[in-house]
Every structure is written in structure tokens, then in C-alpha cells.
Write a structure and sequence with these properties.
This protein has eleven helices and eight strands. It has helices at residues 16-24, 35-41, 43-59, 65-68, 144-149, 154-170, 175-180, 182-197, 216-257, 260-276, 288-305; strands spanning 69-72, 76-82, 85-86, 95-98, 104-110, 114-124, 130-141, 202-213. The strands form three sheets. Strands 3-2-5 form a three-stranded antiparallel beta sheet. A three-stranded antiparallel beta sheet has the order 6-7-8. The longest helix has 42 residues, at 216-257. It is rod-shaped, with a radius of gyration of 43 Å. Residues 1-40 and 301-305 have low confidence and may be disordered.
Length: 306
């Protein structure tokens, strides 16, 4: 395909990189046509058709104005083809523009940001786990002329490429990376899509991972693993509490053993606590020394009888 203006003809077979760079360096306003080339490009038949068309327009004024004058909105651009060739100046708009009904055809291009959902993709992760992932992509047309001439359907092509890129990027990630590094994955997808769609005049602004769906069996296994981990942590915390409590009881016992009156005070405090709860059971603490004395008395009487 030959372009006009500042672009030179490049053979894609001999120099594919040069052809890509030639399309990549297009100005946002579209192709810049050379007036001299445009004058000689229509040929003799083209001049005849243009003359007849202008003659019909002049003869049918003012009715022909309804067919010749078109309007595009602020967010739109019109790419005009005259006898199959793009008019000089690239895309027209916004506002009014003039066409020749018999020889001109135009295509409106919306420059607003468009969003679409990437259908859920069944992806096999790097650690052999099958997950279902969907995403949302935001893009806009940055070059109206290129989006019409370089690709048949820019919107459909971007949708298909987004689904393929999602599978390719996530196929190199582990399940843990998919769940914890969504921002990095979204940024990588955005860069890959933007680079691939640049020759189509499409600018990918943002990519977001919406949801990562796991198989039911895997969800149950992960839930059981998390529950087991929580129970293990609970047992460790309970054991540490018992250890700290035993140390505190040992220290309290050492303090009470140094003063016999402290034990009696502890008995009284326990009775006070029990009576405050309005229990029908009354507990009388008996010192252990009393049982020791009774045991000593019984042992002495038995030895005396023998």
C-alpha cells in the first residue's frame, strides 16, 4: 500500500521493521497527502466523473446541499474517500464538511473512550491450576484515518487481541501471583495491548482484572488449609497463655508461702467471691496442716498400741 505526503513506500516483505515504524510514526491528524500526487492520481476518468458530479450539484442547487453538506460531532471524525483515495488533510471534523455524493464516501469514527468486558477465559496457570479469569479494557481511537485504513474493524480486533493477551500473560503466572499481583498483571497487559494496537490507531488506556474464579474442589482445599492454619495458630497461642499463667501461679505461690497469713486472706477472698454469686453451696476451706496433724496423731496411736 502506498501512502502520500511524508511517507515513502516500503516493501513489508523486504523490511518489515521499516514498514512497522512507518505506520507507527503517523501523525494524529492522519495521512498527509501531497497535492501534486493527488491531482495526478484520479486520472482522466476521475476528472470526468468529478466534472459531471459538480455539474449535477450546481444544477440541483439548493436540493443538492442536503446531500453534500455533512456534520460530525465534537467527539467524531470523518474519513473521506474520493474515488477510493483518502482526501488530503486526513480526517475531517468536528463541524461541517463538504462531500461530492457521486464520488465520495466517508466513515465516521468515534474518538470517545470505549470499555468492554473480556469474556471469562479458562487459563492453565504455571503451577498447573485451571482458573477462569475475566477483565475489562478501556481504549480510544487515537488516529481516525489509520483505524479505518489499516484494520477492517478496530473494535473487534481489539476485543480478540485482549482475550488472547489475557491468556498469554496469565499463562506465565502462578496462582498465588494471579491473586496477589493483579496491578502488575493489569499493567503488563495494558503495555502489550497498547504496543500491538498502535499500528491500528488505537490507544489502550487501562486494563483491569475483574475476577479470578477457582474450581470448587480447589476452593474447599484452600479453605481446609486456611482453617488448619488458624487452628494451629490458636493452639500455639493457647499454649503460650498456659505457660505464662503457670509462671504467674508459681510466682504467686512463692509469695504466699513466705507468709502463712496470706493464705488465710486468700481463703477469705475466695469465700467473698462465692457468696457474691448467690450460690446455695457453701465452701469451708480447711487448712492442709490440719490433715497433716491428724495423720501424725493416727500414726503415733498405732505405734503405741503395738
Amino acid at each position: 500500500m502506498s501512502t502520500k505526503g511524508d511517507f515513502h513506500q516500503v516493501n513489508a516483505t523486504d523490511d518489515p521493521e521499516g514498514a512497522y515504524n512507518s505506520m507507527k510514526n503517523t501523525e494524529p491528524s492522519g495521512y498527509q497527502a501531497n497535492p501534486d500526487d493527488d491531482q495526478h492520481s484520479v486520472g482522466c476518468c476521475g476528472y470526468i466523473l468529478l466534472f459531471i458530479s459538480y455539474l449535477i450539484i450546481i444544477c440541483t442547487i439548493p436540493f443538492s446541499m442536503f446531500m453534500c453538506i455533512k456534520v460530525v460531532q465534537e467527539y467524531e471524525r470523518a474519513v473521506i474517500f474520493r474515488l477510493g483515495r483518502i482526501l488530503p488533510g486526513g480526517a475531517k471534523g468536528p463541524g461541517l464538511f463538504f462531500i461530492v455524493p457521486c464520488t465520495d464516501a466517508y466513515t465516521k469514527v468515534d474518538l470517545r473512550t470505549v470499555s468492554f468486558d473480556v469474556p471469562p477465559q479458562e487459563i492453565l496457570s504455571k503451577d498447573s491450576v485451571t482458573v477462569s479469569v475475566d477483565a475489562v479494557v478501556y481504549y480510544r481511537i487515537s488516529n481516525a484515518t489509520v483505524s479505518v485504513t489499516n484494520v477492517e474493524d478496530a473494535a473487534r480486533s481489539t476485543r480478540l487481541l485482549a482475550a488472547t493477551t489475557l491468556r498469554n500473560v496469565l499463562g506465565t503466572k502462578n496462582l498465588s501471583e494471579m491473586l496477589s499481583e493483579r496491578d502488575n498483571i493489569s499493567h503488563t497487559m495494558q503495555m502489550n495491548l497498547d504496543e500491538a494496537t498502535d499500528p491500528w490507531g488505537v490507544k489502550v488506556e487501562r486494563v483491569e482484572i475483574k475476577d479470578v474464579r477457582l474450581p470448587v474442589q480447589l476452593q474447599r482445599a484452600m479453605a481446609a488449609e486456611a482453617e488448619a492454619a488458624r487452628e494451629a495458630r490458636a493452639k500455639v497461642i493457647a499454649a503460650e497463655g498456659e505457660q505464662k499463667a503457670s509462671r504467674a501461679l508459681k510466682e504467686a505461690a512463692d509469695v504466699i508461702s513466705q507468709s502463712p497469713a496470706a493464705l488465710q486472706l486468700r481463703y477469705l477472698q475466695t469465700l467473698n467471691t462465692i457468696s457474691a454469686e448467690k450460690n446455695s453451696t457453701i465452701v469451708f476451706p480447711v487448712p492442709i496442716e490440719l490433715f497433716r496433724g491428724m495423720g501424725t496423731f493416727g500414726g503415733g496411736a498405732a505405734s503405741t498400741s503395738m
